[in-house]
Amino acid sequence: MDASFSEEQGAIQRALRDVLAARSESDDVKAAVRTEAGYDKELWGSLARELGLPGLALPAEYDGVGCGTVELALAFEEAGRVLLPSPLLATAGLAAPLVAALGTEEQRRALLPPLASGELTATLAVAAGALPLALGLTGGGTTAPDGAPGGTGNGGTGNGWSGNGWSGDGRAGGIQARRDGEVWRLYGEAAQVLNGHTADRLVVAAHTGGFARSRTLLFLAGHEEAEPHDRGRDPRGLVRVRQTALDETRTVARLELRDVPAVLLGESDEADVSGALVRAGARVAALLAAEAVGAADSALGRTVEYTTLREQFGRPVGSFQAVQHRLADVYVQVRTARSAAYYAAWAADADPGEAETAGGLALAQALEALRLAAGEAVQLHGGVGFTWEHAAHLYFKRAAGDDLLFGPVHRLRAHAAERAGLFARGAADRTVERPERVAV
């Protein structure tokens, strides 16, 4: 097996790195996140037109580039290096693959070409704080207990099982859907929706059917005929409010849906929505891992450069063995995380079953590497590194923010271990025989 990148993949990486290096310095990023959109629309348009970034992994028949997850992971790694604020994750990582997997041919023809060209942006909206559950990263997903509505036993893929109630389970909370003649209507609230205040299309996970036929379906909302009103309100009962986030480079929003008309994504309400979400989750985990690796590598590079310039006791700080050991530990963590990320990206296309475990483990490894790299960057930059305005804090906030949005790390690992069958059911209840203590 040849694990090196092809000439084409290397060209994608170099082209994107050159563009972002020129237009996404730390000051550029800080200026972009303070705009109303939360990202540089002009830069996003250039990335879409010149490099085909949002359509990199979409099929050529829908005006995409036709590459795979590995190529998209390369793009995410370069975006992570500069902490690029953009709708890339929401559009290319979450919404577009779900439309491609579940949408009717008419829906694909209508949505995928403008998403690939950057003309439209989209995102996935689920109940507050439930994104890692919905994507099967920290639980939920397709696993349902025996006898549960839509379950198929241990590790099954029953239609619509919303593990741990992440979509509401027909009770209060979450997002609900009801049929009104030929139209579906959505009501409820979603929080921490990536780029939710600006996305042109919303893929909304909503619960329907009540307890007797409990299931979670995906719906398309946010049609072009709805012109936004003041304060994020539009005439169809949808209210969007940008939320304050620890990581400003990852914009999130709260959505309030009040009888919002929507269209079912797909042919019927019998689609395997849970399976599609879990498959998308494995891919998203690989992309997020690559993005975190890029951020960690950039933080490490900045720190190494600074320690060669800053002097203490008449010599560069980087010449001290203790500092070298700390930086070496970060380097090993970053390289390990990068290998795991690209294995998960390869598996997302070549072996989807393996990807469901590899993605969560790769994301856990990458988030740990980023947290370590960002923490060492703050400390080894000395007094200037502890100032809130320093670029090192952008990486530190990204590490903490991603852990909150997609983790935490210990749950990612625990769920991956459970999925891989490392711990048999009931193993925790077994008693361990211990030798009797002998008095001496």
TrEMBL record:
<keyword id="KW-0285">Flavoprotein</keyword>
<feature type="domain" description="Acyl-CoA dehydrogenase/oxidase C-terminal">
    <location>
        <begin position="286"/>
        <end position="419"/>
    </location>
</feature>
<comment type="similarity">
    <text>Belongs to the acyl-CoA dehydrogenase family.</text>
</comment>
<dbReference type="InterPro" id="IPR046373">
    <property type="entry name" value="Acyl-CoA_Oxase/DH_mid-dom_sf"/>
</dbReference>
<dbReference type="InterPro" id="IPR036250">
    <property type="entry name" value="AcylCo_DH-like_C"/>
</dbReference>
<protein>
    <submittedName>
        <fullName>Acyl-CoA dehydrogenase family protein</fullName>
    </submittedName>
</protein>
<dbReference type="InterPro" id="IPR013786">
    <property type="entry name" value="AcylCoA_DH/ox_N"/>
</dbReference>
<dbReference type="Pfam" id="PF00441">
    <property type="entry name" value="Acyl-CoA_dh_1"/>
</dbReference>
<dbReference type="Pfam" id="PF02771">
    <property type="entry name" value="Acyl-CoA_dh_N"/>
</dbReference>
<dbReference type="InterPro" id="IPR009100">
    <property type="entry name" value="AcylCoA_DH/oxidase_NM_dom_sf"/>
</dbReference>
<dbReference type="InterPro" id="IPR037069">
    <property type="entry name" value="AcylCoA_DH/ox_N_sf"/>
</dbReference>
<keyword id="KW-0560">Oxidoreductase</keyword>
<feature type="domain" description="Acyl-CoA dehydrogenase/oxidase N-terminal">
    <location>
        <begin position="6"/>
        <end position="119"/>
    </location>
</feature>
<keyword id="KW-0274">FAD</keyword>
<dbReference type="InterPro" id="IPR009075">
    <property type="entry name" value="AcylCo_DH/oxidase_C"/>
</dbReference>
<feature type="region of interest" description="Disordered">
    <location>
        <begin position="144"/>
        <end position="167"/>
    </location>
</feature>
